[in-house]
């Protein structure tokens, strides 16, 4: 529902090892209309560990908005390119690459180096990329990597949720939330989805939520109490923070974990260390960065790709925009 995908129509001409085309770049912090401009760029041979793709689609995420406004903590001053994730055809690889020219891949771009996916070409990090499974559409592929790799970091690596446990997902109709909802179901958890409208709750039910709670109209604490028989939730997946997360935290079970993913509300979840001590729960920060061991990282992506092939996880595509509509 909140998942936006940018469809890119390429019209540039490939040269032997250099490619040229257009890229949307933040030239100054501010509102997209003033901050983001289309520039002519060139792409040289990819460095070790990166493949160069001709982009067909790119996921449009909340972090792109944060980057444009100057609120993204991992990037310095402009200029830099937008787009954390992109899908398309490999056009150049370094020696000993996992990929070959012509492969169809989706992956996390080199956006932290200022080269994003809202462009006609993009570098993707080989360790954070997969071949696009046969049944995955271009639009699904363009929005796959960030949401699901983050959900994997939260629910498998950092705050593991086990089969039979209860997972509460905040912002569950957003891109992070909808990915966590599905991955939670795929690992066998009972999933309670929290969102802010009836339409969003219906969306969460379609994507497998066992229970849905509207935080704007329901008494969240009472509803979770009813759903869990007073036991509380084992894991909270929190891309929202602020008051919504603070309310959810009242319902965390003994030995529970809150996975802190993001701040869509504008503020992180407020934590009270004395409360954590007295109620025996853990708060875990989650940033979906590649694992130090490349084999472990590849295994994470293989598992996600297999779940996608089985149809257990799917990018929910909400709106598709054209390349010219980035602003
Ligand atoms: N840790 C990581 O590695 C990682 C990776 C990706 C994203 N993130 C972070 O996760 C957060 C969410 O990203 P996303 O891509 O999931 O965003 P998204 O698709 O826009 O979804 C965010 C959800 O948050 C809820 N929300 C509550 N208050 C909001 C507000 N004031 N403004 C906007 N939404 C609000 C909305 O649901 P309701 O209408 O139902 O409230 C919305 O569906 C961001 O802070 C992002 O930077 C972190």
Overview of the molecule:
28% of the residues lie in helices and 29% in strands. The chain is of the alpha/beta class and 327 residues long. The protein folds into two domains: 4-145 and 292-325, Alpha-Beta Complex (Quinone Oxidoreductase, Chain A, domain 1); 160-285, Rossmann fold (3-Layer(aba) Sandwich), CATH 3.40.50.720. The strands form three sheets. Strands 1, 4, 6, 7, 8 and 15 form a six-stranded mixed sheet that branches. α4 (145-158) crosses α5. It is globular. The chain binds NADP nicotinamide-adenine-dinucleotide phosphate (NAP). Residues 2, 61-63, 66, 146, 150, 171, 173-177, 195-196, 200, 239-240, 261-266, 286-288 line the site of NADP nicotinamide-adenine-dinucleotide phosphate. NADP nicotinamide-adenine-dinucleotide phosphate (NAP) binds at residues 2, 61-63, 66, 146, 150, 171, 173-177, 195-196, 200, 239-240, 261-266, 286-288.
What is the mean pLDDT? 94
The second-level CATH architecture of the largest domain is: Alpha-Beta Complex
Helix and strand pattern: EEHEEHEEEEHHEHEHEHEHEHEHE
Evaluate the radius of gyration.
20 Å
Q: Please tally the β strands and state the result.
A: 15
Termini distance?
Answer: 20 Å
- The rough form would be described as globular
Number of helices: 10
Give the CATH class of the largest domain: Alpha Beta
Return the structural class.
alpha/beta
| % residues in beta strands | 25-35%
Query: What is the CATH topology classification name of the largest domain?
Result: Quinone Oxidoreductase, Chain A, domain 1
- Helicity level: 25-40%
């Amino acid at each position: 529902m909140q998942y936006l995908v940018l469809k890119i129509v390429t019209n540039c001409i490939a040269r032997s090892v250099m490619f040229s085309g257009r890229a949307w770049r933040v030239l100054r912090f501010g509102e997209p209309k003033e901050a983001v401009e289309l520039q002519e760029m060139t792409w040289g041979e990819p460095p070790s560990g990166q493949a160069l793709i001709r982009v067909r689609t790119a996921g449009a995420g909340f972090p792109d908005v944060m980057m444009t406004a100057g609120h993204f903590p991992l990037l310095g001053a402009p200029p830099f390119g937008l787009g954390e994730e992109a899908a398309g055809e490999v056009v150049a690889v370094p020696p000993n690459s996992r990929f070959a020219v012509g492969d169809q891949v989706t992956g996390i771009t080199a956006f932290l180096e200022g080269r994003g996916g809202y462009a006609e070409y993009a570098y993707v990090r080989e360790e954070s990329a997969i071949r696009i499974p046969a049944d995955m559409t271009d639009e699904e592929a363009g929005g796959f990597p960030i949401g699901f790799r983050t959900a994997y970091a939260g629910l498998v690596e950092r705050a593991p949720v086990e089969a039979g446990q209860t997972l509460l997902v905040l912002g569950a109709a957003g891109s992070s939330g909808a990915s966590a909802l599905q991955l939670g179901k795929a690992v066998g958890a009972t999933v309670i989805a929290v969102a802010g409208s009836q339409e969003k709750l219906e969306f969460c039910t379609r994507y497998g939520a066992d229970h849905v709670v509207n935080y704007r109209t329901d008494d969240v604490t009472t509803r979770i109490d009813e759903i869990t028989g007073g036991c509380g939730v084992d894991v909270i997946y929190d891309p929202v923070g602020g008051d919504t997360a603070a309310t959810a935290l009242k319902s965390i079970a003994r030995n529970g974990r809150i996975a802190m993913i993001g701040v869509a509300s504008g503020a992180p979840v407020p934590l009270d260390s004395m409360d954590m001590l007295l109620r025996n729960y853990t708060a875990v920060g989650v940033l979906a960065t590649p694992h130090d061991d490349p084999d472990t990282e590849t295994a994470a992506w293989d598992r996600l790709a297999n779940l996608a092939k089985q149809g257990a996880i799917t990018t929910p595509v909400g709106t598709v925009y054209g390349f010219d509509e980035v602003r």
